[in-house]
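Example 3.
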Amino acid sequence: MRLRTVGRMLAVVVALAAFSGTAQAETAAEILVKMDKTVNGFDDQFMDNTMTIINIDGSKKSYRFSILQKGEKRLIRFSTGEMKGMANLIEGAGRVYAYLPGQKKVRRVSAHNMQQSFAGSDFSNDDMAFTSWPGNYTAEIKSQDDNYWVLACTAIPGKSAPYPAAEAKVRKGTYQLDAYTFFDEAGKPIKSFENSDLTDFGGGLMRNKTVLVTDLRTGHKTQLEIHEFKVNQKVPDSKFTQRELEWGR
Amino acid sequence: MKHKTTLLFAGVILLASGSAKANWAEMISLSGSLESDVRFITDNWRGAKKGQGYEFEMNRNDINLRLRADPTERVQAVVDTRLRFFGFNEAATLPELISRERIDPFSFQLTEAYVAVRGVPWSKMDIKIGRMIQTWGTVDMFNPTDNLNARDFSDPLNFMDKVPNQMLEIDIYPTDWLTLQAVWVPTFKPSQLPPSAVLGFALEYDDNGCVAGFPAPPLDADGRAVLGSLFSADGPFGMDLDLCRLNFANPEVRTVMPKAGISNSQAAARAKFQAGPVDFSLSYYYGRFKFPVAYTAVADVMSPGGKTSGFVTDSKTIDPKKYNVKYVAEVMYPRMQVIGADFAYSSDNPWVPGFKAEAALILPEKVDFGMSAFLDGEKLDLGKDPANPMRTITSSNGSGKPFVKATVGVDWSYSDIFYINLMYVYGFFDEFNDRFGLHHFFVGATEFKFLQSELQIRMSSVLDMTDLSAMIYPQLTWIVAPAVELSFGYMHFFGDTSPRDPLDFATKSRFGQKATGRNVAFMKAKVTF
Amino acid sequence: MRTLISMIFVVALGALVACGWHSDGGKTLEERYPHDDGMPTPKDTQEPKDVSNEPDDNKPDDSESASDDSESGSDDSESAADDSESGSDDSGGRPQLDCSDGQPVVFFGQWAVELIQHGTFSPLGSPLELTITDHFIVKTDTNGFHWEFCDEKLLVDNNGDFDTFVTVIPDALKKAPKTGISTVTPECNRIPPQTIKWTWGLEDPNVNPLPTEDELEGHWDQDNDGNPGVTLSVESPIAGQRYLARRITFNLFDSSSGEDSWEGILDFQIEESGLGASSAMLKAVVPITQNHMKTSTYRVYRTDATDCASLMSSK
């Protein structure tokens, strides 16, 4: 091997080492921001999903719905099941509206309703309204290895974090959120989310296609499968208004 | 005129055309449901005749189809239909047996058929024209500000159905926190009453087949005194007449419908505001009350061997040995204006219940009820003073003074397990502060969910605190599979079937009277697609 | 904001112009079915006539005179002008009517009247069916109608035994013409609906309340036997005598006519007050109520019998 080639290889190794050293130097907050960017860091995003609820006895039932999101606003529409035609609009913290097709009425959803499960799944309404990690949690690096950081997250008082504490497993390099667990006040784990099946949804848009939620108290599971994922479609703010809900009725 | 309207319509749609959808599959959305409903009457004292009951009341199947077309992002057309098969044979004669429609009767209903256009002519304006159903008000079910559509009470288990009507709706969204709405309804449509409503005008018979009671007209104390003496020697017939001596034909009730003039069209406007945790709205309605109010009554009496008045009608069941009586009543739909307000409060604290309130100030038309009687063609003097004959009794059945109807409610839920909704209601749907007045109600609904909401047990009840009658409605719903529901339940009414004072209209029991409906057990199945 | 103000303005305007609505059902009926109160009404001719058909000396004190405005109410008779009055207050009724066809209807002669009343009473605890048949003979002449009470037959069905209850009408009652019975007022081709009252042992047929054993005011010792009221002999089940006052109100409904006869349906109400008895066990008054499961009737027919004895001999 020529000396010049060896020297170039050494330079690359040194550069890589320097890069690794730079990554290790990132703070938990920075990691959290970058992770959140892979999940929510778009001007807007659209997902078409199927949610499969898996009972303890193995029986399943599925619902199809779509989510349109921009910042902290979300519009969820059910397209199958007994809730077909229903829509939820999250305008912001504490401002949630539901369209009930049977009554042809838009109804404000109270805070106590938010604790209910989303369509009988292991997602709660609060989970569905959760749109920002750094906006709701502070983080510390609990542990790490070559592939992952594990961030211990604590809810910011006064914000709308769904649970008091969480642990997020962030993949190094891609900052994809591969798994996270929510904990109650006593530190007991409540729910775990496992994201898998990283897929290119077109134009290099990477997203974990499958999310498996497990209720750690009951063993009950819910699987979310993303069929379609689009971002930055220049969705206007008017899509997240009661006018939009009324239009759909 | 028709062509011009079509062209105008087409022009509006062209203006509104935004980006057109690529293909039909994207434009059309079809949804609907199949429902089956079987009900069994669990009493034998609330029917037209004593002992009638313990039989199937309903055996119907519904197919609901809703077609929605979105040819562009700014235009939407909706057609919502219902095909109902009643499930009971109606063929009573041999020739009818060759008709499938008689053996298996059905009805077709167009629930909604409208076109909506968004952002035309102003970007913050939406227009909707066609047959539709409006739902105003924030509280659940008992909405005194919701007056545009008449109620459909053909199904006593369903308080939320409405009679659709053709309307023009304009919605304006000037800001995020303000929505303005105006609706014009050209023609009037009355509420659809339950099948048991005819029992409100039915006669009661004793074991001997003699008339034992008749529906009391809305008379004041003086009028009731005249009514009470009608068949006594002090009365206008001048003799004691045992009710067994009377042959009553079935009372006839006619409706006085408003004419289809523009002055009888309805209009309403509403402003909805959002202010933090509070949503509130102000509304105004001009139109008519959708439930019938008693207006006139005529008793046409023919003595044995005598003649009918000819002014009213001839009885078809004349008994030559008895006094034959035909009672013809009229009901009308009084005008009203409604000024409404409602609000809903949602706290951020999940332990704080949601709070809703809605009130309507109703400015009603004054209604006076009139009653006359004829004997053998001659109008009777119902008074006591021969020098001043009184050929017609008149009693107030709606003073014309403004009155309030209101609902206040709280609801709260705990996780997926428990939900409770409590309401105080002043003034039921069909109460118009006439001689029956406005009653106070307490409404409660609790729901328990099990097995990830697959199994729901709901208990609803309504207590009339004015006459202490009540209704209970327990229901079990099982979501067998997504979009498939099975429900079992029971509805029971408590209260006297006869009024406390047989001559006093105001003493009939809200839930006890037979007109409210039968006690039923039901089973329903529904598939949504 | 401008829009809001405009809305408020519209509401206020609407409130101002739209009040004053009034639907008057009474007025609607008056307009739909006008009545000229200058004309007599059926009530005037249908008013119960409580007039005795006896001559003056037998007439109860407070008999009401028959109506002066004598529209008959039948389809084909303008009840002829002047002399179509039926049942004048003093003659007990005129025997002749002028009818629209010009042919007089003459009620001269003898007429038998039967009032057949089906009732129930409970002397022994459980209700028993009974039939009371009152027989009258009525003679008419130029002076009017003359009533004579012939007899009353009482038939009580005591579970197939018809002989348990036997009473005897005193002769004094039969003969005493002042029974208080009012005229049966005929018209040209029928006996129109009317109320008649028949009293036993009462001065005033309308006295209210009836005299009692403790308060005898109003009673009339009609049979003049020294006992109050009318003395009714009871032969079975307990022998003895009862002193009583009684008022029977008959509502006669329209009649159908045959040859020299009329028949119709009646309702009756018996008010009775015990004024004493020969034994304590006979003092109790057992009310008799009409049995609506059977049809009570009246019958008026021409008879050849000249007196009660000959009439009853054929019964």
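The helical segments of chain A are 3-24, 28-40, 111-114, 125-129, 133-136, 242-247. The interface with chain B takes residues 53, 55, 61-63, 80-82, 84-85, 93-95, 102-105, 107-117, 120-121, 220, 241-243, 246-247 of chain A (CB under 8 Å).
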